[in-house]
Amino acid sequence: MEIQHFLVQIGWDDFMSNLTAGGDPMPEERAQFMDFSRVKLDGTEAQMYAPFCNTAKPVLNVLTEKDLVMKNTADWPDPRWSGCDGEDSDLRPDIGIYPTTDAALAEYELTEEELLASKQKVLEARRHRMARISWNWLCVPFEFRTDNDNVPFEFGHPNPKKFLKETQDSETAQDSETAQDSETAQDSETAQEQIAEYAAQLLLRQHRVFTFMVYVVGPRARLMRWDRAGAVVTESFNYVECPDKMRTFIYKLGKMNNIQRGYDPTVSLASTDDAGEMRTCGGDLSKLSSTRRKYLAEATKVGWPIYEIKFRPEDFEDDAAVARKRYSFLVGRPRSALRSPYGRATKGYVAYDIDTKKLVFLKDSWRADDSVCIPLERKTYQRLHAKGVRFIATLICAGDVGVPAQ
User: Fold this and answer.
1) Could you tell me the CA-to-CA distances from 134 to 35, 202, 399 in Å, in that order?
2) N vs C: which end of the chain shows fewer Cβ within 10 Å?
3) What are the C-alpha distances in Å from 274 to residues 102, 177, 311?
4) Cβ–Cβ contacts within 10 Å for residue 177, how many?
5) Beta-carbon-side half-sphere exposure of residue 400 (alpha carbons within 13 Å)
6) Residues 6+ apart with CB under 8 A from 85
7) Over the stretch 250-285, which tens digit does the pLDDT of each residue have?
8) Residues 6+ apart with CB under 8 A from 198
């Protein structure tokens, strides 16, 4: 199905009131903000990055938390990248907002040697804004264009309801009146695929319920919120003439907690001790078969952080819950996963049971919201076991992720 069917437009006010959290800036805070007049609109994309970052800096700096920073990542790919099937990727957004935790800094910060070895001359004043892309830690990607060509949406169209750029499939392209129309349509489709790929990578590499994204074209921009149903996109707005819209979004993002930013509340970065225990399967790899050692090595591959997924006691089968001290499992790189940003997003992990110190298989997916026509998978396993069906997986636990209301 074409990407356009998973995109919908709403007004900026509706987006901010219904899909974001955090308060608005106070007057004394707004007084410290800058406008976007220094963003160079008649040059190259690269010339837009530093002024945009510089304008966003005081917005994030007025916040007490100071747990986010904006970085220019256009020239530095993720050196640790490898997908579930081992592919490499040079995919990188132009700018990104990142957390300032030690674990995140270790992945996206550039060393002085790297900056000096760069092919482009980086001015001293801009060096602190340069970083490498880290798909493990990217919070919000920003994509930039200088004009309305090769973009996924309309920007500045006389009709504000005009949303998506025209695209054509290959059959339609053959019937186009001009080759230029066909090429333009293809470029727009490619741009839509690019932002969908950004969303897919974020939702693959991180444990997210949703993610925000920003697309900037010259003086105009659109905000997006991606989840497994697709993306909600704002009408385009002029952030140069009306800087408060962009600044307010960045400010509110800084005020949000991680749940409000889209992170799964049941998942957290594993402690150093727990991660080390998983890598050695409790300190005794010799007890594992060669196949299981291979699967464990893949699950703990460098470049994939190890996370702790917390379950509730009631999620466990009665015989599995007895005498447990911890109701958590550790996961790293998925053994299998879908690349699409929408759909049920099924991931399969070779996971480590912290309590029993054994390897298990953990399935993570968005189930269909229809328990009548599509029975819960847990109940299916329970029925099969009750009937004595052989050669099926042993059910340890299962349940829905509860996301607290915000």
Assistant:
1) 28, 10, 31
2) N
3) 18, 62, 16
4) 7
5) 10
6) none
7) 999 999 999 999 999 999 999 999 999 999 998 889
8) 91, 93, 141, 143, 213
